[in-house]
Amino acid sequence: GGLISGSALSAKALNPLCKVYGVEPEAGNDAQMSLKTGNIVKIPTPITIADGAQTQYIGNLTFEIMKSNVEDIITVSDEELKSCMHFLAERMKIVVEPTGCLGLAGLFKMAKNPESGFVLDEGKKVGVIVSGGNVDMNRFSN
Fold first, then answer.
1. 96-141 pLDDT tens trace
2. Which own/partner pairs from 27-31 qualify as long-range (CB within 8 Å, at least 24 positions apart)?
3. How far is CA 120 from the centre of its chain?
């Protein structure tokens, strides 16, 4: 919750009309459920390749920031994360860990799904955080 809370505060300070979306693994959507219910939801430790997102619940401080600054939280599958890792390695020549791919994988999902309500209009600015290179190269190459 810290990364999206800080990012949302920064983005909204620069442009109050900016829409901020978060992305979680499908198996660990505690923040998504918390935003939808308005209360912090606790889940079992999720089983996902995004090991940096294996949280059981969102923190109180970050949740309060998210409630007023985050438009929505979407989820992506482990397969979507693997596809995004492959895209970044092949096209961008960078190695990014699964958790670091969450934002881009979410953007790809939203852009491909017309029902998401997310439309990439020409000239629209989109920012995505891609971070973390903690990848076991033996596992990544398979």
1. 999 999 999 999 998 887 776 666 677 788 899 998 888 777 766 6
2. 27/78, 28/53, 28/54, 28/55, 29/73, 29/75, 30/55, 30/56, 30/57, 30/58, 31/1, 31/4, 31/55, 31/58, 31/63, 31/66, 31/73
3. 18
Type of residue at 140: F
pLDDT in tens, 116-126: 666 667 778 88
Question: Cα separation of 89 and 30, whole Å?
Answer: 29
Amino acid identity of residue 60, one-letter, is: N
47 Cβ neighbours under 8 A, 6+ residues apart = 27
> What pTM was estimated for this model as a whole?
0.89
Residue 85 near residue 98 (C-beta atoms within 8 A): yes
